[in-house]
Amino acid sequence: MNPPGNSLAFGGPGIAPRWTSSAKEGVGTAYHTSCRVWFTLSHGIINEIYYPHVDRPNTRDFQFLISDGETFCHEEKRDLDHAIDYPERDCLFYRLTNSDPGGRYRLVKNVLTDPHRSVLLVHTKLEVLDESLRGKLQLYALLAPHLAGFGAGNSGWCSEIGDNKLLHAQRHSVHLLMTCSSGFLRRSVGYVGFSDGWQDLMHNFKMDWEFRAAENGNIALTGEIDLPDSGEFTVAVALGRTYQSAATKLFQSLAEPFLSKREGYVRQWQRAVVHSEFDFSSDTCDGGGMYRLSRCVLLAHEDKVFQGAMVASMSIPWGETKGDQDLGGYHLVWTRDLVQSASALLATGQTGTPLRALVWLAAIQRSDGSFPQNSWIDGTAYWSGLQLDQVALPILLAWRLHTHAALGLFSPRAMIVRAAARLILQGPVTAQDRWEENAGYSPSTLAVVIAALACAADWGRETGNTDAADFVLAYADWLAAHVEEWTVTTEGELVPGIRRHYIRITPTDPNAPDPHADPNTAMIQIANGGGVHAARNIVSGDFLHLVRYGIRPADDPLVRDSIQVIDHALKHDLPQGPGWRRYNHDGYGQKDDGSAYDGTGVGRCWPILTGERGHYELAAGRDPKPFIRTMEDFSNQGGMLTEQVWDGADLPHARMRRGCPTGAAMPLCWSHAEYVSLVRSCHDGVCFHRVDPAYRRYVLNPLPSRYEIWTARHPLRHLPRGKILRIILTEEATITWSIDNWARTNESDSIHQNELNLWYADFLTSEWSAGSTLGFTFFWKRDQRWENRNWQVSVT
């Protein structure tokens, strides 16, 4: 034991802080909004505790050390065998059983939060099975604060309120207090790697240090449990904005029996149970367990203050290698993931969260109609990319809510109009595809944009805005008419005999897109160390979105040929069933030796893609049940679905097993959403995501596009004679033009599309001879200035 005067821990500021494994086995929170604490579980212990929002982790981990004081000290995470189960149905309440491999003892922990306060409760029972250890074992609570999202700069102290012995950590305005219902015998606060409790106990299996303070560093709190004869006790961890508020929550929570907390927690969650009308258990392969759990997981990822904001995952991929510089992890909001999660909840009959998600999106939409690439739950942008599918997806969510009569009094008209105008001005090239890596013509992005514009037009007609609807449809028709030209190679080399197939993306400069980029000759730089390759030979299943959203029929020969190509290049037959990688040469994933992704690696199979293939098989008239079963089997012991599964040979030293989760994000809400949507689609016999206005227009009754579109971002250089050339502008202009090399000039005033606040002019190329060249420039009326450059479009 350290001398009484030596109250300050040594070794500050400690080792560089790291987060923890992303391989979560569970996530939880009370269903009530008054509790603003979330928790994650892995390897039998608590990992991150989030507070006061679902995007703000405050701990690295919290576990017990178990020692006999003489011959061993076991760490729950590394030394015990773990089991996890759900004592109650339809509820994120966990029982963790961590057992000594020798069968001498086990810890049984019931984990939940206070139903109405920001307090984590871990009711624990030590069961001694080896009589020689009875009365000898001691337990030590070990918690690593990473308050307000940082491991550095934390301070901790031993404190007392009355007879209650507490452990206190603080960083800025976040306070954490930990205590035990039976009390602590000893306490210590130390710097990680030097004077923390783990270092102390692993030295001689006894707690010798009792430091009362460790300030401004990477710290750990340690408390020796005063074990009652029953072996049962509750550890409580409270968080607050002040010491007093955290302490008040802590003692109020412990003032009531744990059993009453459990009953209240379970009762809250079971208020959100799936209505019998949406119980699709018979369409699953596990009796509906995964379906119900996935619904709970999605609900748990919604913030309770910024309601409707749902983070992608309460995890940090490969977190054990990440430090304070990686602020976001996956506990950020991506519009894409949010719409997938909200749509899946809508598929289960839950309308409240999807509507709140739509309102939240409308509140953070930028004035130009776009949305952040990703953001914190208050809408503050984190990354700065622009992805057109993320501009389009909120329109789809609004349309789905509308068709389900679930909008209430909220009108998304302004959001839809601004997003549609942005898509028209910005497309067809996206600055980033859905994998956030490459700019260009992406089949999945185009599919989502076309579907969203078809929805916007459908809504416009319903509300009497037929002119705007026709304008939007003209643009959507043009996109649909060019999908193959932009995203299909005719010189593919991956499968003998199949030269024509969809590619992942036809790349082009996002700042100055080539309106006539060539899929056959373009070269693509693959992110994450993937190298430079001919774009014609980089394939993905992204084109399946064309079928999913109703833009192309499932039996399209080009689609079928492209499936043969991706199955050859990307498919892996795993013990659980078929899996697919995102694209060939993908570098985002676990390395071949099992080590963590560190900027380079090998992209592995994504369960999402198994679900997307299941949706395709359903659209093609085949049974999606095998893909439902595969996704269920991809889940871990706690029922969590990962971002990626290991598709190499087993690597025991790296804990990599074929078909099991890697160190990527888990649970990934997108994976759970895809599973839920597939179950609903199986029940309905049709893809839940199919957009019927698009399906009717492009599959059932396809018509050729009458237009070719010119915008400042897509300045066509040539078009076929007979098409209507539509020039779309952001402001009013007079277009001065000529088709005889300026021997004679003409003037056309732009027309205002009032609803979209766009300006346009149409030119009938059928009146011009083949080989003509249109030259034109603009006189901007508001600024009374000439553009001072000419454009040319040749008529072929």
Q: In brief, what are we looking at here?
A:
With about 800 residues, this protein is α+β, with helices and mostly antiparallel strands.
Largest beta sheet, briefly? 9 strands, antiparallel
| Low-pLDDT regions | 1-5
Rg is 29 Å
End-to-end Cα distance: 89 Å
Q: What is the molecular shape?
A: elongated
Helix content: 25-40%
Tally of helical segments: 17
Q: What strand order characterises the main sheet?
A: 6-7-8-9-17-13-12-11-15
Sheet/helix structural class: alpha+beta
Mean pLDDT: 97
Fraction of residues in β-strands = 15-25%
How many extended strands?
35
Polypeptide structure, described:
By secondary structure, this protein is of the alpha+beta class. It is 27% helix and 24% strand. It is built from 17 helices and 35 strands. A 9-stranded antiparallel β-sheet has the order 6-7-8-9-17-13-12-11-15. A hairpin with an 8-residue loop joins β1 and β2. α5 packs across α16 and α8 (388-403) crosses α10 (443-462). It is elongated, with a radius of gyration of 29 Å. The model is unreliable at 1-5 (pLDDT under 50).
Q: What topology does this entry show?
A:
Layout lengths: L25 E4 L8 E5 L2 E6 L8 E9 L5 E3 H4 L1 E5 L8 E6 L5 E9 L5 E10 L9 E8 L8 E8 L2 E8 L2 E7 L3 E8 L5 H8 L8 E5 L1 E7 L6 E9 L2 H12 L3 H14 L17 H12 L34 H13 L4 H13 L23 H16 L9 H14 L13 E2 L1 H20 L3 H22 E2 L11 E2 L3 E2 L15 E4 L4 E4 L10 H4 L8 H14 E4 L2 E4 L26 H13 L5 H10 L34 H16 L7 H9 L6 E4 L7 E2 L4 E6 L3 E6 L7 E4 L1 E3 L4 E7 L8 E8 L4 E2 L4 E5 L1
